[in-house]
TrEMBL record:
Pfam families: SusD-like_2. It comes from Cloacibacterium rupense. Residues 1-21 form the signal peptide. Keywords: Signal. SUPFAM superfamilies: TPR-like (SSF48452). InterPro entries: SusD-like_2, TPR-like_helical_dom_sf. This is Starch-binding associating with outer membrane.
Length: 475
């Protein structure tokens, strides 16, 4: 994996350096170095960027763990008090999503069209690019709300000020795109193979990921469009979603040239700026959760989380273990565990999720999380028996258990906390906001470069504030 990842991504850097030195005339074209990047190289780079910045602990690029109050800060308190201005986080997140991820996939599609090869193989490659890009689009719309979509990525045709599309319309189109691409996958063929840094061309796994994205979109729609949510969720499950921990959309860093970004932020930097939060640790303590042994260290013989909001000195609280901070620890953006909780929620909402009960799916999700984290079987069984599904308050039951199980996967957990309103997150005393964030405000650069359109979007959604709820966050 180390050599493979290094050769693909460093190849991008080599291309950029050599291409800027060449003349545009045919006499100076180096036949050993392509002038157009192969689609597979762009695909690998898009995947790497998508995982790195969706998982990084850098407060400049990723605030999801603070929006869900999973981490506390040891050196400064800007992020835990929801200061989203000082470090320009909205601009950084917006640019990373559009420029480094969504655009990489779009350019890869363009380049793929001019490449030769087996039409079925090309169709599968296109499907992988499309599914990965839709996954990034979903992150963008669920982070900001209304965003540039239809007019986005059209700078080459002179579109430098794209209009903002309605978030619900984007959802509908993403579901349509997933339906279309699923119909074009040939399961008897592979996809990108070595350039696919997650599934290595296994189109059955790409199919299950696409259906799982459909399921997540559907569950988010449940309170605002229950009919569409039901048909979409049931179709996704019937077609086959992630079916084991081995199916999870997870990126394995090589631990050498390319290391897990949490390792970079918490270990390699020598800063140790974060500890697990008191809200997380207290809830796990109240449940005698065996995952604490895997995730955290003890301080004074107990698990102790740092207060969320005030400064939490590093040596006074439990630390996040190498399970998350190891150089080669994987970044998991869409897990089997999450899918099981989504299915349990679907049943609770009256959807047919393959005939299973909500209680059985809830229990399966708990077990999958225990297995994923290497918890001994006896400890896992005892925990599951002591904390069964509560049908009388299913939002609290699913919300709290999913929040714990998705620890360190801030974006995935954020959907649950916004949709279910559990666990109840308290706005810090010194918060810059009036409530815990429901969205990321728009990039300040948009107010300079695309003022008319971003202003119209801000007005439409009810104000460009972090407290403004997304269209699907109804209650």
């Amino acid at each position: 994996m180390k050599k493979l990842l290094s050769s693909i991504i460093l190849g991008v850097l080599a291309f950029s350096l050599t291409s800027c030195e060449r003349d545009i005339t045919s006499l100076n074209i180096d036949p050993k170095h392509p002038q157009v990047l192969p689609s597979g190289t762009l695909f690998a780079m898009g995947q790497y960027q998508q995982f790195y910045y969706a998982y990084t602990g850098s407060v400049n690029h990723n605030n999801y763990r603070f929006f869900t109050q999973m981490w506390s800060e040891t050196t400064y308190t800007d992020e835990v008090n929801y200061d989203l201005v000082t470090r320009n986080q909205p601009r950084n997140v917006f640019n990373r999503l559009y420029v480094y991820t969504i655009n990489n996939y779009e350019q890869a599609k363009t380049n793929l069209a001019s490449e030769g090869g087996d039409p079925s193989l090309k169709a599968n490659k296109y499907a992988s690019l499309e599914i990965a890009q839709i996954f990034a689009w979903e992150q963008a719309v669920d982070t900001f709300g209304d965003i540039p979509y239809t007019d986005a990525l059209k700078a080459s045709s002179g579109q430098f000020a794209p209009k903002y599309d309605d978030a619900k319309n984007i959802y509908v189109d993403l579901i349509k795109r997933l339906n279309n691409v699923l119909g074009n996958i040939n399961l008897s063929k592979s996809g990108y193979d070595k350039e696919d840094l997650v599934y290595y061309g296994d189109m059955s796994k790409w199919t299950r990921l696409a259906n799982s994205i459909r399921l997540r979109l559907a569950i988010n729609l449940a309170d605002t469009d229950p009919a569409l949510a039901k048909t979409t969720a049931e179709a996704a499950v019937a077609s086959g979603v992630l079916s084991s921990n081995a199916d999870s959309y997870s990126f394995h860093f090589d631990g050498g040239t390319f290391t897990n970004p949490v390792f970079d932020d918490l270990v390699a930097s020598g800063r140790y700026d974060f500890v697990p939060s008191q809200p997380v640790v207290d809830l796990m303590n109240s449940k005698s959760d065996p995952r604490r042994d895997v995730w955290f260290t003890k301080i004074g013989g107990v698990y102790k989380g740092g207060p969320f909001g005030p400064l939490a000195p590093y040596n006074s609280y439990s630390h996040i273990s190498s399970h998350f901070t190891g150089a080669d620890a994987p970044a998991n953006l869409f897990s089997y565990v999450e899918v099981l909780f989504l299915k349990a929620e679907g049943v609770a909402r009256g959807f047919n999720m393959g005939g299973a009960t909500a209680a059985d799916l809830f229990k399966a999700a708990q077990q999958a999380s225990m297995d994923e984290n290497g918890v001994p079987a006896a400890d896992a069984s005892a925990y599951i028996a002591a904390h069964p599904y509560d049908a009388t308050n299913w939002k609290k039951s699913i919300g709290e258990e999913a929040w714990i199980s998705l620890f360190d996967r801030g974006f995935a957990a954020w959907n649950f906390t916004r949709r279910l309103d559990y666990p109840v997150l308290t706005n810090p005393t010194n918060s810059r906001l009036t409530a815990v964030p429901k969205r990321m405000p728009y990039s300040d650069q948009e107010y300079v470069l695309n003022k008319t359109n971003v202003t119209a979007a801000a007005t439409k959604i009810g104000g460009d504030k972090a407290e403004t709820k997304l269209f699907w966050d109804k209650f």
